[in-house]
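Appendix B, example 12.
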Amino acid sequence: MSDVASTFSEDELADLCALADGTLPPDRRADVEARVAASPELQELLERQRRAVAATQALEGDPVPASLAGAVQRGRPARGRRPRWLVARVAAAGALAAVIAVAAAIVLTGGPGSPTVADAARFAAEAPAGPAPAPAGDEGTALAVDVQGVVFPDLLRAYGWRAVGVHRGEIDGRNATVVLYERDGRRIAYGVVAGEGLPRPSDAEGTSSDGVLYQSARIDGRLVVTWRRLGHTCVLVGDAPQDELLALASYRG
């Protein structure tokens, strides 16, 4: 399913699938929901599984494109052994469901060729192409720029980081916006990629705060913190220690 899923047992993933598609027995629902509520990782997987279920339902009434069926056949040798819970569901549903399951897997992982957190971090590290956005209102907590409702923070009053520039562009067809900040000769870049969350990096260190999973990793020698807001991927890259980047990432004003 993803690198996040690899940290859970097959039974846990089977429970998650059953919760998402409504087949979990009522007497087990409260226990599974409690486990999900206590785990940001399980919350993420449940969200993605529900999107997969919705994609499956949308595809059930449509003919399967020949190109997608061919992609399934070409992709099978590289995927290796599937978890028992997935094999059982696919075998019971027949050939059409196998194609639908692959379409669902694309929803879960971001799909072949989709951008990665590393792509977002590299985009964020580029030089700004425009002036800094103005503050939004008098509170001093937000800037007058956002990506589909994800507002960029004004970090000046709380942390001393001044917005100095912005640049916009696309990462593999997805709109992305980056705000650059400076403090004492150091620079950080705060980027947001539009659309569904990008696959999480497998080698990152995870930290949960207020129900949000923040992951820290080295990409091209730079420290990167990534997380999600309103379903979109955010990245923070720059010349600051990990604890400071995590504090800036979690700032809401």
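Confidence is low (pLDDT under 50) at residues 75-82, 87-112. The CA atoms of residues 243 and 249 lie 10 Å apart.
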